[in-house]
Request: fold
Amino acid sequence: MITFFTTCKNFTGLFGVIQNNAIKSWFSLGIPVEVIVFGNAEGLEDLKIELPIVHIPEVKAFEGRVPYINAMFQKANEIAKYDIVCFLNADIIVTPPFVEKMFAVHNKLLKNYLVVGQRINFEIDELLEFGGGWVERLKNYTSKGELHDAEGSDLFLFPKGQYGVGTIPDLLVGRPGWDLWMIFDARQKRYKTIDLSRDYLIFHQNHDYSHKISNEVKRKEEDNRNYFFIPEKARYIFQLYACDYEVIDGKVVKKNAFENIAATVYHHELLFGKSNLRYWWWRFLMLFYKNK
Reply:
């Protein structure tokens, strides 16, 4: 059982199609799920007639437009019905194998973990039919998709209780950098930070970004805002490569890639300073993996 939560744009044009597809896929995993939707997107009422969505219309937002990540995570943490909680962007489709992977992670760890992952981008402009064989029908579209760079994540899965009040700063949803902060924060708190990409890829439905504010100065301000919460020297270290664990064949295993070592070096410098032997041991390992 999983609680999903998200926020939506207005259900108009292509966004109406892809958000319907995404949310209906979450209800089509073959297990009991809870779906919480934050915000007052136009058109959501029609979907609520079909599906038992938990709707939280009021959510704290930057200038009344862009929801804050902490407001959604804190509320979901408070009201989630299930022990496994997952934020997905409302353009992301997941399929039943996702469930198997998530149960394998949670049942092994139970607490202090964050699962993130890479995505496949694909084109679709019509509503999917969710019934028998829907995953095979989806493949007609995803088979032509492209793997997105491993720079960030649209998936954040964690145990209920992990993100309460005061655990996340005022990050903006849908703007660059908030996903990097989540990985950075998990590594600093010594949570097992787990990349799912080797075992499962989520599916992202392509769209334009016409929903962003048209004023160029304001748009740039919004796009840079989340980076202020990450130390400057760490901003581009904590991408998916910086995860210290990954899922392979349904098992959570330690990951020793160069980028993970670089993140660990930063972590030890922050905690112990350069005079500590641990720092220099990880520096040595970083050079070793870089030259492999």
Remarks:
- Residues 288-292 have pLDDT under 50 and may be disordered.
- The two ends are 42 Å apart (CA to CA).
- Residues 215 and 221 are 10 Å apart (CA to CA).
